[in-house]
Amino acid sequence: MLNYDEDLTELVESLICTGREDDWWDFKECYHEDRAALLHDIICLANNRADRDTYLILGVRDKTFEIMGVENDPHRRNQQNIVDFLSQKEFAGQIRPRVEVRTIRLEGHEVDVFIIKNSTDVPYYLTESYTDKKYKPDPPKKGKTVQAFRIYTRVMDNNTPIDKSADIRDVEYLWKKRFGLLQTPLEQVKIRKIAAHTKGLPAFPAWAGNGIKRHPIGLQQPERPLCQRHRTPAARKMATAKKHPIRSPAQHHLTAAFRADKINRNARTLFRRLC
Fold first, then answer.
1. What is the pLDDT of residues 149-206, one digit of tens each?
2. Mutual orientation of helices 35-46 and 79-87 as an angle, nearest 10°?
3. Would 59 disulfide with which of 91, 111, 191, 209, CB 3.0-4.6 Å?
4. What is the pLDDT of residue 220?
5. With helix as H, strand as E and coil as C, how does the chain read?
6. Looking at residue 185, what is its pLDDT?
7. Its pTM surpasses 0.85
8. What is the mean pLDDT of residues 73-98?
């Protein structure tokens, strides 16, 4: 027996009540016969600009928003089917969208919801084009092809056409999101500290050395390390005196005379070479 998610049910009902689609949700009456079309929809929603989880809702008409259900859909897929499907595709860096498949019940029908998780691994794109070779419609027609090295996204209720690439501004936004350039430096520090706290790791690595200066925002910067024997004021004073000893007037006179004699010898040598 299925365990229906009440919070997800309320969310989908509220999206249906809006009577429209948007950046982070999309309605489909039934499952895709052409798996390339399914892959295209997943990539578009994964590369969204809403910076949040997105939802592909199957079993609701996208024009009238009538609930049709997918309980009798011959192309219905479960969580494992989707994981296997994505794992077989050649994504750049072998980094794939994370998709969770949930089922809710609305008006006596089962509606499947693909939750595409928000991530900083965007943009997702293929390094090898994909066409569903098993797709054989009747009457025959050409299947779709998800192009290699094309970056798709979703703006408002429109996906990037499968034979084109996203607008340059949208592509730039996705790369900035990956490299953490959408936040101010202080926001980046806070996000990093929260993520590290969640994982139980230090937010910033401690540098090797004795002196560590801790700043208010949490950054650590190394100071010039002090030797163990120079930690006390007396030890530092002694070390300074040893490095810069106090000289008597006679010692200064002898040093000056030695330097002058060296200069004179160098000058005489140069004079002989010139003559």
1. 999 999 999 999 999 999 999 999 999 999 988 888 888 777 777 777 766 666 555 5
2. 90
3. 111
4. 45
5. CCCCCHHHHHHHHHHHHHCCCECCEEEECCCCCCHHHHHHHHHHHHCCCCCCCEEEEECECCCCCCECCCCCCCCCCCHHHHHHHHHCCCEHHHCCCCEEEEEEEECCEEEEEEEECCCCCCCCCECCCEECCCCCCCCCCCCCEECCCCCCCEECCEECCCCCCCCHHHHHHHHHHHCCCCCCHHHHHHHHHHHHHHHCCCCCCCCCCCCEEECCCCCEEECCCCCHHHCCHHHHHHHHHHHCCCCCHHHHHHHHHHHHHHHHHHHHHHHHHHC
6. 81
7. no
8. 97
Q: Are 28 and 42 in contact (CB under 8 A)?
A: no
- Displacement of CA 70 from its chain's centroid (Å): 34
For the stretch 215-263, pLDDT in tens is: 444 444 444 444 544 556 666 666 665 555 555 555 555 566 666 666 6
In whole angstroms, give the CA distance from residue 151 to residue 227.
55
